[in-house]
Amino acid sequence: MRRLALVVEVAGILAIFGSFFAGEARYAAFAIGVAVVVAAAALGAFGARRTMPGFWLWFASLAVYAFLYIPLAIVVIFSFNDSRLNAEWVGFTTAWYQRLLHNEAMLQAAANSLMIAIVASGIATVLGTMAGIAMHRWRPRLLPFLVFTPVAMPEILLGVSLLVFFLNSARPVLATVGIECDLGLITVVIAHITFSIGFVAIIVRARLAGMDESIFEAARDLGATPWQTFRLVTFPLILPGVIAGGLMAFTLSIDDFVITFFTAGVGTKTLPLEIYTMIKVAVSPEVNAVSTLLMLLTLALIVTAVRIAPDALRGKG
Amino acid sequence: MATQRPERSTRWLVTAPPFLFLLLFFLVPALIMVVASFRHPGEFGGLAPLFSSRSGEEAGLTAENYRVFFGDWVYFEIFLRSFGVAALTTVLCLLLAYPLALLIAHSPRRHRDLMVLLCVLPFASNFLVRVYAWMIMLGPFELLFTPFAVIAAMVYVHLPFMILPLYTNLEKHDPVLLDAAQDLGADGWRRFWRVTFPLSLPGVFAGSALVFIPVLGMFAIPEILGGIGDWLVGNMIKEAFLGVRDWPFGSMLSIMLTVCVLAVASAAAWLARRGAPGHA
């Protein structure tokens, strides 16, 4: 009885999901879906407890998983819909993807995003690894504050403080040596490095914390210089953490909207900024197509990260 | 003694680059904001010069921004609404995340990683994509630009921040405790409220802080999905910097937001320590 109730619940969730493609019938379909889910709950309530003790947990969890995935599934499905409106399923097309390939602004934004992400995550990985090692080894007092606060603050605060810093402080100082400081790719890269260092440092430090100190002592006792110890012992051991941290920094950079929004200025566009403009100006299934491609990219990165360093990600989660 | 010197220079070489970078691009900008909040707005936006050569121009420091802030009920109201939205989002996230985290923690070990990954995957898609998803979902139902749209998207975007710390906490619980409670005659409901929930409080507070704080500073969701009446502190800050270009006022609002964030974070840390097993 209780297992049947879960099956009924899934049917109700599918009806709710379908209501988003039903056009005029959407209210009716949605109401039917909700009614079926309620019926499933009633069915579960009558079922004997011993047939399935964790029933209510399953019932609630299925609903939450649906809540997590339905919105994204709708975006993906409508990216193949042959209609300008994201309201009703009309027919299959790949036209939105083709239009995307000819959208110069979008391609330029994608190129910018990629370049920013590669440079920023590269530098953030080096600096974050250094910070992680320093915090593990010498337990400095001020460094953890500098590393972790940008991670914990609302992004808007870092964004506006860098905006004021670049335009009001760095500009006049750099002007005296003849360098023009304007918002653009470089300021975005600097901003991305600032918030990524903390994430890399957390992952690297977690990796170091799980290690046996005696191997480093052994290397030292055998006459290795600090640099040799690092290159031959420490670095190979923390490498999975470093790579996972680098991938994390890359994803954060390519996805960042808020901090980029404040530090990019008017001329520079990244993919998220371009999506933001499109959403605000005119909603078109082209946005769905970009979103779908972006999801695929992040998915590929996550799968890679999980393959390379499963425990590093688990330690983070 | 001879080994001390290379150790010290290594320490300096490793610590200095990240330290100096963050000093220059995090701490210095933060301090500049504090000073900026006490300055006059420039004639054409931005900041007025600190030392003016021309007479009649406003220069130097002033507490005017703070006076305006504390003198007008409107700003207090927007801060209050931001706290309300953050609190509601946190409670809804907790209600949705708890059963899922509990289910994963009670599942066979070999399934857990996959179930956690399934919770995190949607979170990996771009933030704007997730907001956009609610835009096209609620549009046809004529629910766009309502407080409902704002709250729904806030919960959706921040849910993983609640699921992960809760799961990390619940997973560590010793099942023996529940068996003991059962032997003593406690039913499922009582086992949950008397054993599981009190032990999970550190996870609850950690997750709540991770949801509450970003919601306080959010501007994109109210801007895209809400009406003008749904504005939060973040929207005011964004408008001050990029709209009317009154930087001192925006800096003052950012400082006030920072104070709120620090208060919330310390409260969560204090509650988590008090709620931790052994100190209860």
Your description of this structure?
The complex is a heterodimer of chains A (317) and B (280). With 317 residues, chain A is an all-alpha fold. Chain A folds into 2 domains: 2-78; 100-316, Orthogonal Bundle (MetI-like fold). Chain A has 14 helices and no strands. Chain A has helices at residues 2-19, 26-46, 55-78, 95-101, 104-138, 142-152, 155-175, 185-209, 214-221, 226-255, 258-263, 271-281, 285-308, 310-316. In chain A, helix 1 runs antiparallel to helix 2 (26-46), helix 5 (104-138) runs parallel beside helix 8 and helix 5 (104-138) crosses helix 12. The relative contact order of chain A is 0.11. With 280 residues, chain B is mainly alpha-helical. Chain B has one domain (73-275): MetI-like (MetI-like fold). Chain B has 11 helices and no strands. In chain B, helix 5 crosses helix 6. The longest helix of chain B has 34 residues, at 73-106. The model of chain B has no long low-confidence stretch (mean pLDDT 87). The interface between A and B is large, with 89 and 82 residues.
Helix content of chain B: over 70%
As for the CATH topology of chain B, it is MetI-like fold
CATH architecture descriptor of the largest domain in chain A: Orthogonal Bundle
Q: Kindly report the greatest chain-chain contact and the residue count on each side.
A: A-B, 89 and 82 residues
Strand content of chain A: under 5%
Task: Assign the structural class of chain A, choosing from mainly alpha, mainly beta, alpha/beta, alpha+beta, or little secondary structure.
Answer: mainly alpha
State the shape of chain A: globular
Number of helices of chain B: 11
In round numbers, the mean pLDDT of chain A is 88
CATH superfamily of chain B: MetI-like
CATH architecture assignment name of chain B: Orthogonal Bundle
Distinct helical segment count of chain A: 14
Q: What is Rg of chain A?
A: 25 Å
- Please identify the oligomeric state: heterodimer
